[in-house]
Amino acid sequence: MNREYHRWYSHRLGRDMELLVFGHAGRAVLFFPPRMGRFYDYENWGVVAALADRINNGELQLFCVDSIDGESFYNEWSHPAARINRHLQYEQYILCEVLPLMQTKKTDYDFEAAGCSMGAYHAANIALKYPHLFNKVVCMSGRYDLTRPVQYFRDLFDGYHDENIYFNNPRQFMANMGDEYLLEHIRRLDMLLVIGETDPFKQDNYEFSELLGWKGARHQFYTWDGYAHTPRSWRKMVQLYL
Question: In order of start, what are the domains of the chain with their CATH numbers?
């Protein structure tokens, strides 16, 4: 299996960033890690190995990026406005630095976004904000409104709300989406939502699926037995949905 390690200094983030690329040809998947996860987690957990045949056959390329969740959403020492601004810097890193790398590997721009847990949020958020850049989005065990506390998962902005927070919570900005240009591209996406029946965010996923349906967004919604919010489940999910 072709495996590439990349590291460079991101001026948009003011720090070094790392990522791993697996594969030599095929659909290019921007793969976001789980909450505060690292670029090597999917490799360590066997998620990449679960796709080895398709990667080796040139059907699929994975671009496993790093997260900065600990500097943005989960930085409790930072004001919520600063948290979302840090996330927006990360978004610019993805759009202006990672996607150009993907373009060197996949010149026909056949790009997908995917992720597990918090990575599912990142995948949905960027694909729904910039749907013209992606053909497919796969969200496994995700959360789509970071301001809504669910069980032991808190509001990541501590009750604070502003325009940036609104436009980076898919359940919020999709509810009032009226831009026909964006909606046309969103309806073109092949979108999948996958959640476990006992996952705390099951209801969030049900409601998000309904919202997508109201907006005419083509998507598939799957529920799995039990919690299904573990690497063991994700190894099986990627084989079915990526």
Answer: 3-241 (3.40.50.1820)
